[in-house]
């Protein structure tokens, strides 16, 4: 097994500082994007409901037309 290599305290500090900065940035970015995602999901759900309603109405019209012709 290879013995561990001595790493400069400056390099260790820089690496951990970058790690902590990345974690903080990620948390802030997530908090910024979270409400936008919720809004997108709400809009998509409304569009889905509207599409399902249109399909249901189209099926009802088609069923009524078939019953008239028979």
What does this structure look like?
The chain contains 1 helix and no strands. With 70 residues, it is an all-alpha fold. One of its GO terms (molecular function) is proton transmembrane transporter activity. Belongs to the ATPase e subunit family.
Task: Give the helices and strands, then pairings.
Layout: H1 9-69
How large, in whole angstroms, is the Cα Rg?
A: 29 Å
Q: Give the helix tally.
A: 1
Please tally the β strands and state the result.
0
| Stretches with pLDDT under 50, minimum 5 residues | none
Mean pLDDT: 92
Question: What is the strand content?
Answer: under 5%
Intertermini distance:
86 Å
Structural class: mainly alpha
Q: What is the approximate shape?
A: rod-shaped
SSE string, helices as H and strands as E: H
**Percentage of helical residues?**
over 70%
Query: How many strands, which pairing sense, and closed or not: the largest β-sheet?
Result: none
Comma- or semicolon-separated keywords:
single chain, about 70 residues, mainly alpha, rod-shaped, ATP synthase F(0) complex subunit e, mitochondrial, mitochondrion inner membrane, mitochondrion, acetylation, hydrogen ion transport
Q: What is this entry, summarized?
A:
The chain is mainly α and 70 residues long.
